[in-house]
Amino acid sequence: MNPRPILPCGSGCVEQAFTRTHREAANKATVMSDGSAPRTERPWRAARTQVQKISRHKLRFMLMASTLARAAEVRLRALAYDAVGAAA
Fold it and tell me: Is residue 6 part of a domain?
């Protein structure tokens, strides 16, 4: 378990969120859909499929996070310009 919480900003927060999601999904993938233990002949199959799904969605997740960060930066910049203009 990671002792550091995921912060809404800062370097590496997106990668940390992805890593946590990846780990939780891999843990869930070791249990079959009916709640029983995985099949002994191929216990890696469910986990591998889950990891492939996560890998497909990693780019979409990173793009969404960077878009949100960019929008927040634009808003903060606008507020800073307004504050400087009001102070002048």
Answer: no
State whether residue 58 is helix, strand or coil: helix
CA 52 to chain centre: 15
On average, the pLDDT of the chain sits at 68
Beta carbons of 29 and 47 less than 8 angstroms apart: yes
In a domain, 71, yes or no: yes
pLDDT band at 72; cut points 50, 70, 90: very high
pTM, 2 dp: 0.33
Is residue 49 a part of any domain in this protein? yes
**Cα angle: 34, vertex 39, 44; to 5 degrees:** 105
For the stretch 29-64, pLDDT in tens is: 555 556 665 555 455 566 666 666 767 677 788 888
Q: How many domains does the chain have?
A: 1
Structural domain for 54, as ranges: 13-31+43-87
